[in-house]
Amino acid sequence: MGASATEQSRPLPARETVLEVEGLHTRFELDDGVVHAVNGVDLAIGRGEVLAVVGESGCGKSVMARSVLRLVDRPGRITAGHIRVRTDDGTADMVTADPRTVRSVRGNRVAMVFQEPMSSMSPMHTLGNQIGEAIRLHEPVTKAEARRRTVELLGRVGIPAPARRVDEYPFQMSGGMLQRVMIAMALACGPQLLIADEPTTALDVTTQAQILDLLRSLQQETGMAVMLITHDLGVAARMADRVAVMYLGTVVEEGPLDDVFRAPRHPYTKALLRSVPRLGSGSRERLKPVRGMVPHAYRRPAGCPFHPRCDAFMPGRCDVTRPTPVRAADRPGAVSCLLYEEEDPA
Ligand code: SF4
Predict the structure, then answer these.
(1) Is 136 helix (H, G, I), strand (E, B) or coil?
(2) Prediction pTM value
(3) What is the Å distance from ligand 1's center to 314 Cα?
(4) Ligand 1 centroid – CA 307 distance (Å)
(5) What is the tens place of the pLDDT at every residue in 10-63?
(6) Given 3, 18, 34, 261, which residue has the most CB atoms within 10 angstroms?
């Protein structure tokens, strides 16, 4: 990777785009083989937009999200592509950016909330110390000011008695409260994009709904964009403006939530939607799990990666040719499936 901090010569395509991922590949070279966890992802997020990235476990959603912030642990590494983030003076490409630029983008521009808040917090330090530290890392404010802002942030994310709880330790909080603290920490420096990786998976249903409502209201209040990584289509339906469906490291369908969920085009999206209950459908309607399993990470099928599980499989085509994204003539978004190859390439 090079050291160019700011990519002035290649602006983001739309003025309001805050993140553009293009041709991203992230792979893990292990003793037993190479895992292509992210295998050519293209996506973009506009200012104030909520994009849900959905798909079964093992489809590369989290690795893609971590790649955006260069948080993939060794032996994982980004091998190709661009991750363009809007900055004050142009665009930073996180793939080639130097460590100083990467640090400045993290927190200042793009923040992340993880599934397990405990794993990203220190058990040895109070909430006030940890959030205050995050504020002071990015802004030259006094300790007293950082503490004042921390109390304000804790109140904003719904922590009761924030002036008292600021001095508590993570182990003194419930799972839902800790996730609120993580969100407060992520908001500390006013990011333009929040990446939330399965932020409610470890929580009970009631707390899950509260955290999603909180995220939605903070997003509307601040105008930040949100990339929501989730395997739960109900969570996506509740939150998203747009959806990207991932399968084996690639985006197979993307578009506005209503289009994708009401009239899915890709056979994988259709199968995913058949596997969950739909609002308004008869209670006797049988749910159908997606046929087969996600293939073993080392054995990526040739041609279309979904072909061993696809009900519309075309022998001699789907197992030979890898589909590329095509745009629909009548709606925004794109789909990667040979059934649509006559339409315009995306
Ligand atoms: Fe199914 Fe073929 Fe489309 Fe892949 S390309 S999703 S196998 S129809």
Answers:
(1) helix
(2) 0.89
(3) 7
(4) 6
(5) 555 555 899 999 999 999 999 888 999 999 999 999 999 999 999 998 899 999
(6) 18
- Tell me how far the alpha carbon of residue 5 lies from the centroid of ligand 1, in angstroms: 40
For 326, the token pair is 């095509």
- Over residues 189-202, the pLDDT tens digits come to 889 999 999 888 87
DSSP-assigned beta bridge partners for residue 52: 228, 243
Q: Is the CB–ligand 1 distance for residue 260 below 6 Å? A: no
With a cut of 80, say whether residue 90 has pLDDT above it. Answer: yes
What's the gap in Å between 194 CA and the centre of ligand 1?
A: 33
Q: What are the tokens at 151?
A: 């109390």
Give the side-chain half-sphere CA count within 13 A for 314: 13
**Cβ atoms within 10 Å of 183's Cβ, excluding its own:** 24
Return the SS3 of 71. Answer: coil
CB of 335 sitting under 6 A from ligand 1: no
Q: What is the rounded CA–CA span in Å between residue 165 and residue 154? A: 9
271 lines ligand 1 (CB under 6 A): no
Which segments of 30-142 does DSSP mark as H helices, in order? 61-68, 99-108, 127-138
Q: Which of 133-137, 158-162, 199-203, 252-256 has the lowest mean pLDDT?
A: 199-203
Which candidate, 101, 117, 97, places its Cα nearest to that of 109? Answer: 101
Is 340 close to ligand 1, i.e. is its CB under 6 Å away? no
For range 131-154, the mean pLDDT: 91
Is residue 135 lining ligand 1, measured as CB closer than 6 Å?
A: no
Query: Hey, whose CA ends up nearest to atom 7 of ligand 1?
Result: 307
Compute the distance between CA of residue 296 and CA of residue 248 in angstroms, rounded to an integer.
Answer: 10
Q: How far is ligand 1, taken at its centre, from the CA of residue 304, in Å?
A: 6
Would you say 328 and 266 are in contact if contact means Cβ atoms under 8 Å apart? Answer: no
**pLDDT averaged over every residue in the chain:** 88
The mean-pLDDT minimum among 36-45, 269-278, 319-328 falls in: 269-278
Between 283 and 177, residue with greater pLDDT: 177
CA of 54 to the centre of ligand 1 (A): 18
Cα 35 to Cα 30, 31, 63, distances in angstroms? 8, 11, 11
In ligand 1, the atom with minimum distance to the C-alpha of 304 is 4
